[in-house]
Amino acid sequence: MAAAGPSVFLLMVNGQVESAQFPEFDDLYCKYCFVYGQDWAPTAGLEEGISQITSKSQDARRALVWNFPIDVTFKSTNPYGWPQIVLSVYGPDVFGNDVARGYGVVHLPFSPGRHKRTIPMFVPESTSKLQQFTSWFMGRRPEYTDPRVLAQGEGREVTRVRSQGFVTLVFNVVTKDVRKLGYDAGPLDTQGVLGPGPPQGLPR
Amino acid sequence: MAEVHVIGQITGATGFSESSLFCKWGVHTGAAWKLLSGVREGQTQVDTPQIGDMAYWSHPIDLHFATKGLQGWPRLHLQVWSQDSFGRCQLAGYGFCHVPSSPGTHQLDCPTWRPLGSWREQLARAFVGGGPQLLHGDAIYSGADRYRLHTAAGGTVHLELGLLLRHFDRYGVEC
């Protein structure tokens, strides 16, 4: 009797939220969470996290470093709904209120190996100038009630955003039984550096 | 049946003269393809970049196709529009690119074009805005009636698409 093939594959991702580049802002912390489809379930590791507050270094790099670990394992029967990591960065405004400084989203890589991704961070923006002034003054900026909405495409057509920074993430990906189930994920790509980089002049 | 997963995002766009851009996208496939999960079309957010000139959308794309044949490989067609502070939208460019056919992650740069009109229409576009648009979106991805158009280049749309293929080797297809 032939052994039944696997019906479930595993995706193990570890890595870190390495650093950020926000030229105009300082004293930032970030939160991450994973959004995935119905066929996916996390089996180990943390699905959410909040980092420390970091300030820009005094040297010429003006670097914002979190070095915040990510470690999660998912199991699934279907690549549809591949997990995405949603990052939210917050910091104080001039009055001391905690405001959103950027949201970003990216799919977890699916080929095994080491991947570095630099993702853009954007905040929602009010349409009217008066509302922009009032929200600056009162400290209540527009923000997403649930950042998970960024992982879907629907409903984004009505939002206006302003992109104002970048966050660099590093992932190490290990998969199990993806090939046994018949999927071809392409060449194994180690030390892959993908994703749009920040424009020239900003530190990588 | 062989299956194809397209998982990635429309990252953003560069090279357009306007800022505050958004993109309407859609996927067109041949008759042998069936969309099992995912949305076939959508519209991104409107982004006004503060750093540099690249507008970032980070719009996720997650499509699951089943196919009986290779013809009609999926094509992504894009329309980039700019929105000004009054909420008026103006066409910035049309573009299309085929979904890559080899598995793995790909960085794609899709060039765009916009229809030029007569000199009167070009002058009006410079002062008042507007400008000619295509009546039927299929001219973006098909070559059929293109010879009628006179166009100018727009900017470039950047995409990062990952492709997972399933059971293609069972049918002897090499990609």
UniProtKB/TrEMBL annotation, chain A:
Coiled-coil ranges (or none): none
Subcellular localization(s) per the UniProt record: Cytoplasm, Cytoskeleton, Cilium basal body
Keyword match Cytoplasm: yes
InterPro entries, sorted: C2_B9-type_dom
CC annotations in GO: centrosome; ciliary basal body; MKS complex
Keywords linked to the UniProt accession: Cell projection, Cilium biogenesis/degradation, Cytoplasm, Cytoskeleton
Keyword hit for Cytoplasm: yes
Pfam family membership, one: B9-C2
GO BP, one annotated term: cilium assembly
Function: Component of the tectonic-like complex, a complex localized at the transition zone of primary cilia and acting as a barrier that prevents diffusion of transmembrane proteins between the cilia and plasma membranes. Required for ciliogenesis and sonic hedgehog/SHH signaling.
Known partners and oligomeric status: Part of the tectonic-like complex (also named B9 complex).
Protein family (similarity comment): Belongs to the B9D family.
Name assigned to this protein: B9 domain-containing protein 1
Organism taxonomic ancestry: Eukaryota, Metazoa, Chordata, Craniata, Vertebrata
Primary gene name: B9D1
From TrEMBL, chain B:
InterPro entries: C2_B9-type_dom (IPR010796)
Gene Ontology MF terms in the entry: gamma-tubulin binding
Assigned keywords, A-Z: Cell projection, Cilium biogenesis/degradation, Cytoplasm, Cytoskeleton
Source species, domain of life: Eukaryota
Compartments, record wording: Cytoplasm, Cytoskeleton, Cilium basal body
GO CC terms in record: centrosome; ciliary basal body; membrane; MKS complex
The keyword Cytoplasm belongs to this UniProt entry's keyword annotation: yes
Gene Ontology BP terms: cilium assembly
Database matches in Pfam families: B9-C2
Function: Component of the tectonic-like complex, a complex localized at the transition zone of primary cilia and acting as a barrier that prevents diffusion of transmembrane proteins between the cilia and plasma membranes.
PANTHER family given in the database record: B9 DOMAIN-CONTAINING, B9 DOMAIN-CONTAINING PROTEIN 2
Recorded family membership: Belongs to the B9D family.
The protein's name: B9 domain-containing protein 2
Source organism of the structure: Catagonus wagneri (Chacoan peccary)
Gene name of the encoded protein: B9D2
